[in-house]
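Q: Could you fold this chain for me?
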Amino acid sequence: MRYTGAVCKLCRREQTKLFLKGDKCHAKCTFDKRPMPPGSARPQRGKPSAFAVRLREKQKLRRMVSMTEKPFKRLVEAASQSPEASGDHLLRALELRLDNVVRRMGLATSLKQARQLVRHGQIKIGGKRVGIPSYKVRAGDIVALDQRYRENVGVKLSLETAKRLNQRPSYLEYNEGEFSAKIMRLPERAEMSFPVNEQLIIEYYSK
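A: Sure. Below is the predicted structure, expressed as structure tokens.
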């Protein structure tokens, strides 16, 4: 079941910023004021178990990408069968989801906003409209915003934020005039936007 509660509680539960509210997470963040886990008046005492550490790392990544358990588990299982390092395969698959690519282009400041653009038919790949947020973008693809949506206030604000933060990865070649980006190559681990220990996540599901 998809989580529909207050997303700031998720950041507090995972004890890190998940950036689920886009630009607001940089300016007015509840986690900065209330870093304690929800329902807790003080930090947990004692050392967490190995299982708890792996569970929290899994939950952190799953919440970052706003995925429910079943599709997330399928991605992990597919990564485990890959000839390359399972953790790298998992994070690359998440990095190259269309909704995440739209976010990293700067057209949206959060995955929620990026998914809205995709589902509303505002994103094209190679000139063809794609409305599936989980669509896997490949090297060489050109992702572009529909011309009719380029004056949207939300998109303009997101692009201003992207320009200010200067966080577009180098595997994307962004064309400012065309509101598009070309995937030049597969992203390397250092370029991916998920600050997690992916090996702990693979170990969680391997038991």
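A (continued): The first strand starts at residue 123 and ends at 125.
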